[in-house]
């Protein structure tokens, strides 16, 4: 079902290999303002391509990219490869080291209706438009999205385990994660990767905005090319693939912040009482533990008070959206329908566009925003399970935006991919099974 190809990757020049920790950057949607300021000070950091500055960021990225190519800051590998990418990490309070295993390749930017790449959450339109402009201007992809394939037999892992023994890079990133990149050039092995993925659908785990931008770019280019064949560079998209059956995949929660709200705390609690059981919490640091393993339970944090709220079971029957129960029962769907729409008055179809709603993955930063007064209040959530993500994707329906946060995030800068035809060209048929 899914056609993938190896990549003629662009990478930092070998002379910068020992400075790669200074070249990588967080993905554009997780870069804090302080991180950005520090990273921008390095004129060669990858953030200049992924989150460029200037009145016209897309043109700024294009100029920087052209300069980097001319000055050989980055160079292109002439032989396509499958890039094996491992992330070794620990979670707070745990001693066990996990390893998120995967590989980076190019996949056709299948439109959603083709049913090859499946999405599980909504997008925010402005973020998609920004990414489209970047693609049109640079014809360059500074970071991969994250896709899941299902392989309970773990057929590809032995090939990846062997390749990772001879890494190109082995470094520590901004989040304390050990990032290791290797490459497979062996033609028979690459064919095995292409053959395995060809029989599968791909579940988009992270990067919905960038992938949707790739779809739009492909469609626009197709419409403007009367000789479109389907194998041009603009058809392809950079993606990091991991096995959904891996035991080391971790999903962390994304909390909700509210600003510019006309209701005060008493008004919100009064309205919420119609739908939720409410319990006062005397230490907001305990909220995550109090809602853990509790279905449809959330934390509500105001400047000087905090509460645990949990949907009244009988109220679930009043869920009036025409969607399957497997989607309705997801905690974040319950939150967006019963709290954000029914209590806060922001309708489901308006939430993606609402300037009153923000998203924050860091719990301490989230609570801090409320404490300092830059947010009116916060809703604390818990993670969605992998089984729910798979079930929702297969149902054909979606969860609300910013539902999942697969940890650790991939980083920008380890490699780049071009959708410029001259830089993409290669007799790829040699790799096809």
TrEMBL record:
InterPro entries: UCP033563
Annotated protein name in UniProt: DUF1015 domain-containing protein
Organism encoding this protein: Aquiflexum gelatinilyticum
